[in-house]
Amino acid sequence: MSFLMLVWLSEKMPFFTYLLRCSDSKLYCGYTNNVENRVRMHQVGRASKFTRARLPVKLVFVEEHRDKSSAMRREAEIKTFSRKKKLELIRAK
C-alpha cells in the first residue's frame, strides 16, 4: 500500500480524545485512533512518561472525532481546562 493511500485511509478513520485517571487521581489527556490499544499501552507503561509513574490508569472519558486534526485540537483544548472543568466534562458524558 502506498504512503498516500495510508494517509488517505488514516483521514477516513475515526480518532478519539480521551482522559485517564491515574492512581494518584491526576488526569491525563491524549488522542488516538485505537482507544483499547492505547489504554493497554498506558497500562504497561509504554505510552507516556506521565502515566508510567502513575499506574494503574483508568479510562474515564472518550470522545470520537471525524479526523486526527480535530481530535488533536480537542486534546489541546481539554489540556487548557482546569481540573474542575475536566471533572465536569467526565461527569457530563
In brief:
The chain is α+β, with helices and mostly antiparallel strands.
Structural commentary:
- The chain is of the alpha+beta class.
- The chain has one domain (15-92): GIY-YIG endonuclease, CATH 3.40.1440.10.
- It has helices spanning 3-12, 35-43, 49-52, 68-80, 83-92; strands spanning 15-21, 27-32, 58-65.
- It has a three-stranded antiparallel sheet, with helices on both faces.
- It is globular, with a radius of gyration of 14 Å.
Q: Provide the spatial order of strands within the biggest beta sheet.
A: 2-1-3
Number of domains: 1
Number of helices: 5
Terminal CA distance: 38 Å
CATH third-level topology: GIY-YIG endonuclease
Poorly predicted segments: none
Features:
alpha+beta, GIY-YIG endonuclease, 49% helix
What's the helix and strand layout?
Blueprint: H1 3-12, E1 15-21, E2 27-32, H2 35-43, H3 49-52, E3 58-65, H4 68-80, H5 83-92
Antiparallel strand pairs: 1-2, 1-3
